[in-house]
Amino acid sequence: AIVATLGIATSARYYLVTWLGERVAADIRRAVFDHLTRLDPRFYETARTGDLMSRLTADVALLQSLIGSAVSMGLRNALTGIGAFAMLLLTSAKLAGLMAVVVPLVVLPMIIFGRRERRLSRAAQERVADLAATAEEAINGMRTVQAFTHEAAERARYGAESERSVQAALRRVLTRTMLILSVILFGFGAITFALWVGGHVVMAGRMSGGDLTAFVFYAVLLASAGATVSELWGEIQRAAAAADRLAEILAVRPSIAIPAHAVPLPVAEGRVAFRDVSFRYPSRPETAALDGFSLEVAPGETVALVGPSGAGKSTVLSLLLRFYDPQGGAILLDGVDIAQAAPEAVRGRIGLVPQDPVIFSATVADNIRYGRPDATEAEVRAAAEAASAAGFIAALPDGLETHLGARGVTLSGGQRQRVAIARAILRDAPVLLLDEATSALDAESEHAVQAALARLSKGRTTLVVAHRLATVRAADRIVVMEAGRIVATGTHEALLAEGGLYARLAALQFTDA
């Protein structure tokens, strides 16, 4: 019965503490990931993907290990140590007092070396994060690495990061070694001293040999428990360093302020207004991306933003999506300042086709359905047809159910762009943003997609960013930008007749053509 009870209790303990570790780890990962999804692009301008992944995996794994096994072991040994010390007192209060004198000598190294290990553990975990960031960067850019025959250099860079990680880990290990050495020396040294004193007491006849043997047995139990707890203390310090790194992420506050009482958006019309907007990117505060930018776009109007690189065209789209807040002025959507509305409500009225579309590691249908998750298969097919994507999708092994590789590596640039266009078509939002939406298409596909976008933009407010002026000739208005300001507005013909920057750009492009 005792053996059966022991087996059941041990099994139950293992299951429960392991369940607790898994549950806590899952909750922490979810909390950190949820927080990451709320952070705006300003945070991701400097954050490294590999570092964030290291915190979500390696750091959480340390906490999981602590909660799922180390804490249970520590509690068991703590109880054993308390029981052993109680039996020491019952066996010989004098010798137990000698053992108790040594306790501060054991605790002090744990405090000193524990603090050092926490600091070194954090450094070691940061080196692991550097290693992950280096690998992530090289793997994502492997085609470029191989195209420029840079494999040896990347291997050397990764090897150097790996060596730095090892050295940081060894410094932490050395600190743990000194802690274990201190605990064993003082703990078992105390036992040896007590045995020497006890031997004299036995020889004097004030204590039996059996009592001394029992005392030594309990002292060994106490010392062993103390050594185990000291090792656990090192694990606690490692986990504390991991918790610090996770807390850093959770402490980051989004720079996009969400109003406590968001103003609801009225019935969607698609009216957009920029009023004297000024903006500087946090990473480039010395240069104004937009300077006194004002633009009114009527519902259903198509406005093209053109100009040289760095003129602020894509910044206009980013601010409308409220990826950033301007330092001056206001942006209105359907008459409501978007700073007073919920970001999700604002973005819910906008469809986007970026210059470099993101393709997820999922099926073609799932990637298109990202625009509207509740869309039916018929609606997905219709969107693919409208984006001139049905042809190449049909040629894929499983059609819409073909699983695409990470970042859409199995598709060409033009195919990825057409999937992104189908996604925006399916979203069916009143405002459409096209950021070089046809830049990766061949002439035949571009013609088909332009026709599809022309049909899609009817009845919608459309902002088009383009470098190739031939793609925006049919826009209702063309806004010419330079250095964050509007320098001219009009139709293609009017701007050509006016001369200036647009005429110079057109002359260069059409002459090159």
Task: Provide an overview of this structure.
This protein has 513 residues and is of the alpha/beta class. The chain has helices at 2-38, 41-44, 49-91, 93-140, 142-147, 151-203, 209-251, 313-320, 343-347, 364-368, 377-386, 390-395, 413-427, 443-457, 492-498, 500-512; strands at 272-279, 290-297, 302-306, 328-333, 336-337, 350-353, 431-435, 461-465, 477-482, 485-490. It has a six-stranded mixed sheet, sandwiched between helices. It has a four-stranded antiparallel sheet with strand order 2-1-4-5, covered by helices on one side. A hairpin with a 2-residue loop joins strand 4 (328-333) and strand 5 (336-337).
TL;DR?
With about 525 residues, this protein is α/β, with parallel strands linked by helices. Helix content is about 60%, strand content about 10%. It contains 16 helices and ten strands.
